Amino acid sequence: MSEPTNALDTTAPATKAAPATGDNERVASLWTDAWYDLRRNPLFIIGGLLVLLMVAMAVAPQLFTDKDPNSAGFCELSSSLQRPSGDHWFGFDVQGCDVYTRTIWGARNSIIVGILTTSLVVLVGGTLGLLAGWLAGFWDSLLSRVTEIFFAIPLLLGGMLIMSTWQKGNAWTVSAVMAVLGWPQIYRLMRSAVISNKHNDYVVAARALGAGTGRIVTRHILPNAVAPVIVVSTINLGVYIGAEAALSYLGIGIQSPAISWGLMISDAQSRFLNAPHVLLFPAVVLSITVLAFIMLGDAVRDALDPKLR
């Protein structure tokens, strides 16, 4: 994966004095100002609502459909490839399964992969980047050389090579594989942010006042270094959902009987000409989900970038 094109300026301290209001002067943090801007950004509102909708589908699919695709008798061959109707909004697939119900339940695996992969990437890449940027010297060189090895492996190609060795893929194995290949980007972001912040005046002043390493890192370095990581991770969450769909589409990601949007698209491709609805609806929901996370990440980037203030 390529480096993000819009890097955030993390050299500004995390707190700043806001203009005085009457006799009271408030000190607003970067995060307070960001939240103030986000609430007024239509991109954030639309993206956030779409993300909440997809998360609700993943957590409680029963809110959207009263059918269970894992129950006996859910699929009936007599309904094979029937088109959408008032009772069945998305129609039926080749096995006679209700496409709407499967699309709703398919959100769970996709969202799990996106959230779990992003969490592992941030945990591993962020921790190693923080250590490398703060310690410098030998450890920085060692970690950077290891990172370059992983960074040279494309996400999808590496995922295909690794997942092809698994007998049966699921959301957890797909997340683990993508996390192994995805952490170098967050490592490089965190490392560069720590290096650019650790020599700033407020860090030097904290050290002169006797603050320990732990306090300096958690109270002064991290609040300024974590902003670009949050932005890129939000955008990448959608990318990981799309990557999972691609792996499942190729037959080496999540495997049946589990439900995945990519797996549904793969099963429907051969019937696209005479039953396009079988492929269209899961593909549209997948695209909307990926777009929602990208919109959310763009809005967060605009709010956290001091250059835009």
Which tags fit this structure?
two-stranded antiparallel sheet; elongated; disordered N terminus; 309 residues; mainly alpha
Largest sheet: 2 strands, antiparallel
Envelope shape: elongated
Biggest β-sheet: strands ordered side by side in the sheet: 1-2
What is the typical, i.e. mean, pLDDT?
83
Secondary-structure class: mainly alpha
Tell me what portion of residues adopts beta-strand conformation: under 5%
- The H-and-E topology, N to C, reads as EEHHHHHHHHHH
What low-confidence regions span 5 or more consecutive residues with pLDDT below 50? Answer: 1-28
Radius of gyration: 23 Å
Q: What is the count of β-strands?
A: 2
Kindly report how far apart the N and C termini lie: 29 Å
Number of alpha- plus pi-helical segments: 10
Helix content: 55-70%
In brief:
The chain is an all-alpha fold and 309 residues long. The chain is built from 10 helices and 2 strands.
Give structural notes.
- With 309 residues, the protein is mostly helical.
- Helices cover 63% and strands 2% of the residues.
- The protein has a two-stranded antiparallel ribbon.
- The longest helix has 37 residues.
Give the secondary structure arrangement, pairings included.
Elements lengths: L14 E3 L9 E3 H9 L3 H18 L39 H37 L1 H15 L3 H9 L7 H27 L3 H8 L4 H37 L11 H8 L8 H28 L5
Antiparallel strand pairs: 1-2
